Amino acid sequence: MDLVALEIFRTVAHEGSVTRAAERLGRAQSNVTTRVQQLEEQLGAALFLREGRRMVLTPAGATLQGYAERLLALAEEARQALHPGTPTGHLRIGAMESTAAARLPAPLAQLHARWPALVLELRTAPSRQLVEQVLAHELDCALVAWPPPGLDEEAPVPRTPVWTESLLLALPASHPPAETPADLRVHTLAAFAHGCTYRRIGEDWMRQATGQAPQVLELASYPAILACVAGGRCAGVVPEAVVDLLHTPPALRWVPLGPCDTVLVHRTGYATPALAALQAALHGAQDTPSVLAPDSSLRS
């Protein structure tokens, strides 16, 4: 095994395709196929099942993937440690959808402008999945709403507060004023998949009305969530910073749900110049929250 072979294996595993892996790596498809076959021969185990053009990990491949992630992450950390004053190499950042849209463009642009040799990779997912990916060495760090559902607040992952978001419950414009869960007239929550902290907060708030968890309509973006709320049959939890991004926000009713901290998490002992540069950029990012009247209809 060598690091190049492991990088090729990891990329094929992530992409599920030799063609897409070759495009991402800038290699010929035949080269990627040959390196995977050589790795299988060296290890004496099939790593992928070939299903047409799809490459699916075998149990042995899934086992190797965890080791490959850790080995490649450690190799990258070692390379960066040799140049402590200069952030270089790769930094794999995870973030919630709302954070990526509303908070990260400015600090990441600043980071790129100051350290152009540093390659930034950004992935989005719900908070719990992001923490799991950090612990599995699939990400170097992540910005999550704390605590993620299903993870103990004392989870062994270092975290640094970065922002405090003001959360809003979006209701249809025709909904009567709602000051408490008992005032709700809708019983469905439009939200992201399991593992989203904001979804859990919305579920907990709505549960107070009936003692039962609301039905959840799982969606993949805030525009889709707001569109469903505007349709009149569900509620949605949205950070105020996301509402501020909209040029023409929908005329909905907004109920304040309170603050929720966004924190930067990384693995214990992980410390690189790239991570330090990101932390500095986040620290320098200006936080200019808007003012939204409680339980109001938003006007463009």
From TrEMBL:
UniProt similarity note: Belongs to the LysR transcriptional regulatory family.
Ranges for domain HTH lysR-type: 1-58
Protein name: DNA-binding transcriptional LysR family regulator
Residue spans crossing the bilayer: none
Keywords from the named record: DNA-binding, Transcription, Transcription regulation
Keyword presence, DNA-binding: yes
Species of provenance: Melaminivora alkalimesophila
KW Magnesium (keyword) present: no
Gene Ontology molecular function terms on file: DNA-binding transcription factor activity; transcription cis-regulatory region binding
